[in-house]
Design brief:
Elements lengths: L5 E5 L9 H15 L3 E7 L8 E4 L2 E6 L3 E3 L2 E3 L1 H10 L5 E6 L4 H7 L6 E5 L11 H20 L2 E4 L2 H4 L12 E3 L24 E5 L8 H14 L4 E5 L11 H10 L4 E5 L3 H9 L3 E4 L10 H8 L4 E4 L6 H6 L2 E4 L4 H13 L6 H11 L2 H27 L1
Helix pairs in contact: 3-4, 6-11, 9-12
Length: 394
């Protein structure tokens, strides 16, 4: 192979759509482009306001036209047709899963086409979901498993999460652990004034208003906390409007209204607002409830801002607290345990300093480790493809 690899990154949603998956893909794609690779992203044009093609962070983004949307996924013949053309002109395909088309796409390219999969999470039916919803979930899982079998390597955010995935069962020999990258700025820790003894504590959440985030559990816990710490403030940030599959905001509105004197909803934050938000908190909470949440890079960003974290004791999600000691894991959907943990952290007389929390998080979670791991896999696979092609031409 001469020069840097040409990489085709494939996923359903990409920037400016914000989710853990789309931001992971963007950060990795831009890191490869910065390293001199030619990176193209094939994604869906999920909003008519988006241009069909554009350059973002040194990455060429191509958006296929969806035919129809099904919950968080969409059907697009254009997506499949564009992939069939683009994969032939790239050295390596980097496919982000879950994706309903992934099994089909993995079979369209040449058998010699290197395929690297990044497996983000297991899809799960909604609570009380219909038979159609369950059938769709089964289809996505089957498609992802077919793609994973075809892939040469599979990147996972933690072995803890992968160990419980039925989709990845039997493919342990292909797995490479690389934690989800975050957007924490390097440099000295600068904190906004925090709650002093006797002043209200600030408890924060950041995420889309979707079922897997467990915001309903957090609101139940907030009510219990306020009974014993009536001055506490809960600040909820994150998109509750442009959410694939639909926002849960309307289902939470009544509870939010009852707690309006103590709960503030900020909506989606800009990049400039993100870390001032983290640094204004005394405690960050991630009460996730199902397998769509596989890691939760927001909790690492909070830790790197010097803020302790309470997160659900779920595979993958528990890893940042376990590896750093910067917080507490609580049972899933247990509002009482969550409330008790919040009260413990905001009422404890002494604990690790913000600087100690941040230092430990920076020590454990390094973006460059993730970027290097994926870039090395891409280069190895591209080189192997070139070697095979040379051997076949002899």
């Amino acid at each position: 192979m001469s020069g840097k690899p040409r990489v085709l990154t494939v996923l359903n949603y990409y920037s400016p759509y914000i989710s853990g998956l789309s931001e992971h893909a963007r950060l990795v794609a831009e890191s490869m482009a910065a390293a001199g690779m030619e990176v193209t992203v094939l994604t869906g044009r999920h909003s008519k306001e988006l241009p069909p093609t554009e350059l973002i962070g040194g990455v060429r983004v191509i958006r296929a036209e969806p035919l129809m949307f099904l919950h968080k996924a969409y059907i697009s013949a254009d997506f499949v047709a564009r992939y069939a053309r683009l994969c032939r002109s790239h050295d390596v395909v980097l496919m982000h899963l879950p994706m309903i088309e992934s099994g089909l796409l993995s079979m369209l390219g040449s058998h010699a086409q290197p395929l690297l999969a990044v497996y983000h999470c297991d899809v799960a039916p909604a609570r009380g979901g219909s038979m159609i919803d369950r059938a769709a979930v089964a289809a996505v899982r089957a498609s992802c498993r077919a793609c994973a079998r075809r892939a040469g390597r599979i990147v996972v955010s933690s072995m803890d999460y992968a160990a419980g995935s039925d989709v990845l069962r039997g493919m342990e020999h292909k797995l490479v652990e690389a934690h989800a990258p975050d957007k924490a700025p390097a440099g000295p820790l600068i904190r906004q004034p925090l709650a002093l003894p006797g002043n209200p504590a600030r408890i924060g959440f950041l995420g889309r208003f979707v079922e897997e985030k467990g915001i309903d559990v957090l609101l139940d816990a907030a009510r219990m906390v306020l009974e014993r710490a009536p001055g506490a403030r809960f600040i909820l940030a994150g998109d509750h409007a442009g959410v694939a599959g639909g926002s849960q905001y309307h289902m939470l509105r009544e509870r939010l209204e009852r707690l309006k004197d103590s709960v503030e909803v900020l909506g989606r934050l800009s990049e400039a607002e993100l870390f001032p938000f983290y640094r204004s908190l005394d405690l960050f909470v991630l009460p996730s409830v199902n397998s769509y949440e596989a890691f939760g890079m927001v909790q690492v960003e909070a830790m790197k801002s010097g803020v302790p974290v309470i997160a659900s004791d779920m595979r993958g999600v528990r890893v940042p607290v376990q590896k750093t000691g910067n917080g507490t894991n609580v049972p899933v959907r247990d509002a009482r345990a969550l409330a008790d943990a919040i009260l413990f952290w905001i009422q404890r007389p002494a604990g690790p300093s913000a600087e100690q929390i941040a230092a430990r998080a920076w020590e454990v979670f390094r973006n460059e480790d993730t970027f290097n791991a994926i870039a090395n896999l891409v280069c190895q696979m591209a080189s192997a493809k070139t070697t095979i092609a040379r051997e076949s031409n002899k």
